[in-house]
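thread from #wetlab-drylab

HS: before we spend reagent money on co-crystallization trials with adenosine-5'-diphosphate, can we at least see a predicted complex? here's what I'd submit
DV: go for it
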Amino acid sequence: MSEIFTLGIDVGSTASKCIILKDGKEIVGKSLIDVGAGTSGPNRAIEAVLEDAGLKKEDMAFTLATGYGRTSLMDGIADKQMSELSCHAKGAYFLFPKVHTVIDIGGQDVKVLRVEDGVMTNFQMNDKCAAGTGRFLEMMARTLEVDIAELGPLSLKSTENIEISSMCSVFAESEVISLIAQNKETSDIAHGIHMAIAAKAISLMRRVGLEPGYMMTGGVAQNPGVVKVLEEQLKAPLFISEEPEIVGALGAALYGLEGIF
Ligand code: ADP
């Protein structure tokens, strides 16, 4: 039997990610372009993943789109679209079969999923405001004048606990500005910001139940400061895959295989 390739595309609010799977088992191509819905990102991510795999669009047996901007791919690019929640659960289970609880912190929303045998059984989501999201971290990094990739490593050097009491991004930004004016250490402020994000995430996680077998996905899983604080508060390790942003695209490619049959 010849090989079957499926393409999963996750059009997020801040990034576009693609995965090509061979026979639903092996990742043969991946791409990430750091612009998302409403931009050239999705098309560029498709071009990049095909190049990475050394394949053509015609070689794809099925293309499935997920993520915030997925409907834009339904005019000729994708065969089907699916909710990012189901795709996340599917991708998470493929990478970490012991998964029970997924916390996904992306650019624009925070999602918590309960997963049993690869199927989502419950979820909670905050997509109403920037509080607790990756965007919140980007805003705070800008205020602190540090690169988003530096915020996590910097916070690990913290020696003083600072509480950011407001979770509203606008008020939290004022708090950070006032802490800077008080000459507080940037590392301590960054740690306080991560504590605030973790508190928000855990309150969402409690609503689906804290069932060990924790996995973190989404771009914010690349921030070691957020990961450390979350692990401390959960008193358990978080499983994080090598590229935590591609879990939704992976799930889409897996569901793509089911779409063929
Ligand atoms: P979306 O799916 O909404 O496009 P992602 O899951 O890609 O979002 O997450 C984007 C967020 O990830 C950004 O807002 C930022 O906070 C965080 N992020 C992105 N790159 C890095 C990095 N190199 N280090 C730490 N955090 C990062």
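DV: The CA atoms of residues 5 and 178 lie 54 Å apart.
HS: ok that's useful, forwarding to the group
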